[in-house]
Write a structure and sequence with these properties.
By secondary structure, the chain is an alpha/beta fold. The chain is built from six helices and five strands, in the order E-H-E-H-E-H-E-H-E-H-H. The longest helix is centred in the C-terminal third of the chain and has 21 residues. The mean pLDDT is about 90.
């Protein structure tokens, strides 16, 4: 079984972060049902708000601290910057097999779009863990601006350049606030 866990920032102290605790706690609960299946758990996320720790490394630290079932093998994808690039790299590593994808709830439509484009069979679980992202304004932004930009960028190199520039700007701001 191939499982993709989308990163959500690298907190200052991953072991004590409430959002990471709620998010990865849900992932672990789900994996409990698959104790008899070998699981390749891909923790995905680059160096966004921190230069010394990737999102994938933050999740790995949390999971290693909590303990993983023996059937789970952790693999990191931490060299890419955008959700789309992360998903493309995941596809390169696993091929066209059924996949299970975890992401933050409001990002589910965008992740489902990528999964639909890249995989013949994918299940996308949106996990509700960040109160800010559950606000209506944020969810509308994710369903419109973000999703539309990703869909257009999939088909247009010009818009893809804009998408990457916007992502770089977002990461630069996140780093400045850390």
């Amino acid at each position: 079984m191939k499982v993709y866990v989308n990163g959500y920032g690298a907190p200052k102290d991953p072991l004590c972060d409430g959002n990471l605790d709620r998010y990865l706690g849900q992932v672990l609960k789900y994996l409990e049902a698959y104790r008899d299946t070998n699981v390749d758990l891909f923790l995905v996320g680059g160096y966004t708000n921190r230069l010394d720790m990737s999102e994938a490394e933050a999740m790995k630290g949390w999971l290693m601290n909590r303990g993983l079932p023996s059937n789970v093998t952790i693999r990191l994808i931490d060299t890419t910057d955008t959700a789309r690039d992360n998903m493309v790299e995941f596809k390169k590593r696993v091929g066209d097999v059924p996949v299970l994808i975890f992401c933050e709830f409001s990002r589910r439509p965008t992740m489902a779009f990528f999964a639909w484009k890249l995989f013949a069979e994918a299940t996308v679980h949106g996990v509700r863990f960040d109160e800010r992202s559950l606000r209506l304004a944020h969810r509308i932004k994710q369903l419109t601006t973000k999703l539309w930009l990703e869909q257009l960028a999939w088909h247009s190199k010009t818009i893809d350049v804009l998408r990457k520039w916007l992502r770089k700007r977002h990461v630069d701001r996140a780093r400045a606030m850390s």
